[in-house]
Amino acid sequence: MSCCLQQSITVSLSTPRAISAVVIRGNRDFNGFEFLTGHLEFVNGSGGVVARGSIVFPRPKADWAGRFAPPIANISQVRFVGGLAQSANPGISELALYGP
Known about the structure:
CATH topology: Jelly Rolls
Strand order of the largest sheet: 4-3-5-2-7
Strand content: over 45%
Radius of gyration: 13 Å
Oligomer: single chain
Number of domains: 1
CATH architecture: Sandwich
Structural class: mainly beta
Distance between the termini: 37 Å
């Protein structure tokens, strides 16, 4: 196991939205290059983090899904920040956001 150098992926939305679910799919191209942990940050239009949550990716595929009830409102960006990983160059295959 290795720790990445605060690798992150940010999804910016064209207008603020409510987020009711997030799905992250593990790396499909290469074995041994997956995140094991990380966290999500939900950022409002002013740049403030309004919600944050830790993720532990299940094995073997490292797919994770989270639902939020009620939805997290007025979100302009969602940021995934990697934690522990299987290698120094981990990746994901998809980060999808869903609204109500």
